[in-house]
């Protein structure tokens, strides 16, 4: 392997380049990162690699130094790396540490799809969940689900139906589970069901009703928040919620719920009576069979933790 400094100096002399440029190239030739790379990959490089790769060596060192100095290069957010290509040196541009962190954060956000959920849930973390006595069962149930789901994501896993008074942390726990799953590479969808029901009703007669429904019912992990908070029309109950639950039961897809109602109350006081006042116990029972198949009921107790 020829001497880096000598080869580049010969090249400069042959091409009758300016003194300043020669000085720059002489500095580049002595760069420790360049010489170390060449020594490491010597067996894969051509004998005259230094002469033939002079321009790439210069590009690498100058662009790298710009990045270190905090200056922009032509590939913003990226930094140069030496590589071997066809027995010569070449330069590849890879994401900087900052760019990688931004990309990772973006990918994480993309794995948690939220529909009509408050922005505050984005900060929900299991580490910050106060798993005191009244909420310990729900916390342990969430942890058990995460472990079993991640061990066997294609098997059936019964999720949680979180019930309890307003403000005890049901939505927060769902969002924290979603974040943990996203961190571990799994996608979730959180939907505030009363708001979603309004969105579906407003979409009647327009394109997209079927697409909206498909996106919810086919989510790998679905979290239906605040079910029972508002009165349900027969259409929302049967043709929206019923379709979602039927599909997810048949496909054995994990489905969480949160509600101020217990399962018994949801059936008797909410699903059974339509907005028109019709009493339809069989339809309510049918829906509850699917909910009980998909999730087990866990009661969360405690005081209202939301700001007053």
UniProtKB/TrEMBL annotation:
GO terms for biological process: DNA replication. Residues 155-265 form the IstB-like ATP-binding domain. Pfam families: DnaI_N (PF07319), IstB_IS21 (PF01695). It comes from the Bacteria. InterPro entries: DnaI_N (IPR009928), IstB_ATP-bd (IPR002611), P-loop_NTPase (IPR027417). GO terms for molecular function: ATP binding. Residues 1-93 form the Primosomal DnaI N-terminal domain. This is Primosomal protein DnaI. It comes from Levilactobacillus suantsaii. The gene is dnaI.
